[in-house]
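Field reference: sequence -> structure
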Amino acid sequence: MIGERKDLGPVENGPNSTGGQDVDIQSEDQVFGMPFGDIQKLVGKILVVIIHRSNEGIHHDLAASIGMWARLGMAVSLIRDPHGGFVEVTRASVVNTFLEYRERNPNMEYVVMIDADEAIDPSAPLLLARWGKPVVSGIVCGFNAKHGVFACFTAEDENGMPRFPCAQNGTKLPTEGLIPAYQVGTGLLCVRYDVFETMRSKGMEPFALDDWTRKQSFIEGVLKKGEDICFSERCEELGFERFVDASVHGGHQKVVQIAWPNALLDENLKPEDFVTNRKDYGG
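Structure field:
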């Protein structure tokens, strides 16, 4: 196994456990905005994997969520990246960890990988998995000196060109539903089991950089495609759709938190009507 792993399995008392005290929750009651009965069906199918670097901890919001997930009976694995930069190697460790869990628990259907510097709502893994889709990402943002805050996924603009939505261009995102995407980031990502199974069966390593990209990075000193884009391209090749859940957001903790501005969320915008701005990052 590449990387160092610590597994935090479900607590013994199951989904209703609160430190040994019973909680009167009915199946139709709403928890995280979902019927508790639906949550009970999902928790045993999800493995949450949190990736953190050797010199960094886990964001406090994310750490607090681990206890909530355990009380629901959800499995959690912590993977420490000892390399501090070989991201594709650490992502491979996530794949291996998930497939190992799947061997022991055939009901395990989804892995939700979360980077340790993401502040998320504890409902995120359940909301991403609820759709039953092959690949669903939350909205995680990055920062570029030229384009400012941008969302780490690409969707088509009015001319069919995939672009990263950029806040400085006034691009608005819907607040709920699934946005069809071409490329998705890996900071807050739910992947269904058969995606990894199919790739491995065809000799593909899901998050590995392709040979051309690796060689060009040595020549030019620039990495033009990361492990997330390579993964999305393999999904495209095999016919696995990628989506972004517009209701799930991560706050990327850098020197300051990077997140999509609330002023650029449009509750009246439908995901199927969303297009990026031709001025957005990409092309």
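Note: Residues 131-184+193-283 form one domain.
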